[in-house]
Amino acid sequence: xxxxxxxxxxxIDGDTPVLVDFFATWCGPCKMMQPILEDTSKHMGEKxxxxxxxxxxxQLAASKFQVRGVPTLILxxxxxxxxxxxxxxxxxxLIKTLENNLMHTx
Length: 106
Prior knowledge:
Blueprint: H1 8-13, E1 18-23, H2 28-44, E2 49-54, H3 59-64, E3 72-77, E4 80-86, H4 91-103
Parallel strand pairs: 1-2
Antiparallel strand pairs: 1-3, 3-4
């Protein structure tokens, strides 16, 4: 049984790819991403973890990854950034992007 990562850094350094949604509670487009991320999570299953990071409460993480606007999605695998995009990404496009990037991680 694996133990849960204790920190954000441990999470993104792990073997399982992690899609991080940098968002803000006051951001309209961020609210639009919620059902997209839920659908993507259902489709992708265990292949990718999806994590939401509130930029107002986690300014250090937002600053470290130079998040200038929200929403910003960043896909990490073993600590490396595989892909990033700012703005709303439609479900079909997000799934296709994740699948394309995950093919190279296997």
